[in-house]
Amino acid sequence: MYIFFLQFFTFFYFLFKDLYNKDMSLICQYCKKLFVNTYTLSTHQNTAKFCLKIQGKYETEFKIEEDFICELCDKVLSTKHRLKIHQEKCITKNPELILQKIINLKTDIYKERDKFNTLIKEKDIQLKSKDKQLDKKDQQLDKKDEHIKELEDKLERALNKAIEKPTTNVVNNNNSINLAVFNVTTESTKQILKDKLKREHLYYGMGGFADFAKEHLLTLENGEMIYKCYDVSRQIFKYVDNHGVLIKDVKARKLMSIIREPVVRRILEIINEYNIEYETLNKEIYDMDTDTSALRNKISQIDYFKKEALKLKSDINMMEENNKFALELSTRLSD
Fold first, then answer.
1. Distance (Å, whole) CA 105 – CA 159
2. 249-296 residue pLDDT tens
3. What distance in Å separates the CA atoms of residue 227 and residue 230, rounded to the nearest whole number?
4. What percent of the chain has pLDDT over 90?
5. Which of 236, 234, 268, 232 is nearest to 255 (CA)?
6. Is 26 within 8 Å of 16 (Cβ atoms)?
7. Cα separations (Å) of 231 from 168, 214, 227?
8. How far is CA 120 from CA 108, 129, 222, 273, 287, in A?
9. Rama region for 154: left / alpha / beta (φ>0; ψ in -120 to 50; rest)
């Protein structure tokens, strides 16, 4: 009995000696809580949540909220060990929380599934819309290809006709000439070009323009000619002026001086139309995510026809020097 009281007295003696020593080493300097030894004091200062908050280490250094949160009840623990002990009790005490977690998880899965299905439906609708647009573009390209084929066939027939046509000198007596009065002016030419000169006339270069001039500039609506060639080899043309006088036009220079400026202006307008269509098709190719070979072929055709139009413009600017227009026109007006 004596020994028991001696041990009891010794324990409390050292306990109170440590608690009330002069340097107060067993009192937490942050929260002022008392401890029986330095080990429990150190453990407290490194794990107690309220003390860590006072130290400013609760969310920065230790990251307790991020590392030690119970997934069932969202309670924050100070250490991994305490979290493990808590979860064992939490699972046993709170089965309804586990059930709720499972229900919430299933609900989230169903929501994600619905979002995914909605996204698939939207993509299907977009793809169907794209397919319709592509079908429409293919139909337009098919029509344009057919038109180009018709023009190519027309060109081939015209070339064959030109090859088969004999180039003989035609010299007529003035008394037998039957021409209407020559009424071609710069202003009338501008209007005719605006109304009737189309892209297809430029596809065949100077020959195509000569066909246009014969049909629309040098022939009246009743079919009467106002300008004819009477010597193909020297390109000598004749027409009747307003006074009824027969005028000779060597190499069609007088005619060219009247029509050159409005013709060049109209060709530039058509070239600008080509440029706009070229840029539009390029933008369509950029926006499409499928095969664009058909559109690229169309762009190549437009680029080719634009180059032919530029070449024709250059030739018309040099009409008097290169005689190409006079040569082409002479074979068409010698009948």
1. 79
2. 998 888 888 888 888 888 888 778 777 777 777 777 666 656 566 666
3. 10
4. 4
5. 236
6. no
7. 8, 17, 13
8. 18, 14, 66, 41, 21
9. alpha
- Token readout for 138 is 């293919």
**Phi, psi torsion values for 159, nearest 5 degrees:** -65, -45
Work out whether strand 236-240 and strand 228-231 pair parallel, antiparallel, or are unpaired: antiparallel
Instruction: Give Rg (Cα) of the chain.
Output: 50
HSE-CB for 82 with a 13 A CA cutoff: 12
Backbone φ, ψ for residue 51 (5° rounding): -75, -40
Measure CA 160 to chain center.
44
What is the average per-residue pLDDT within 225-242? Answer: 90
Sheet holding 246-250, edge to edge: 228-231, 236-240, 246-250
Question: What are the C-alpha distances in Å from 249 to residues 24, 189, 207?
Answer: 128, 18, 20
Q: How far apart are CA 257 and CA 235, in angstroms?
A: 16
d(CA 266, CA 40): 100
Give the pLDDT score at 54: 85
Residue in this structure with the two tokens 């530029």, named with its chain if needed: 310
Whole-prediction pTM: 0.42
Q: What is the pLDDT of residue 37?
A: 87
For residue 226, give the nearest of 191, 255, 250 by alpha carbon.
Answer: 255
In three-state secondary structure terms, 58 is coil
C-beta of residue 265 within 8 angstroms of C-beta of residue 316: no
Token pair of 310 as six digits: 């530029």
Query: pLDDT band at 238, cuts 50/70/90?
Result: very high
Around Cβ 189, how many Cβ atoms within 10 Å? 22
What is the residue whose two structure tokens read 């609760």?
58
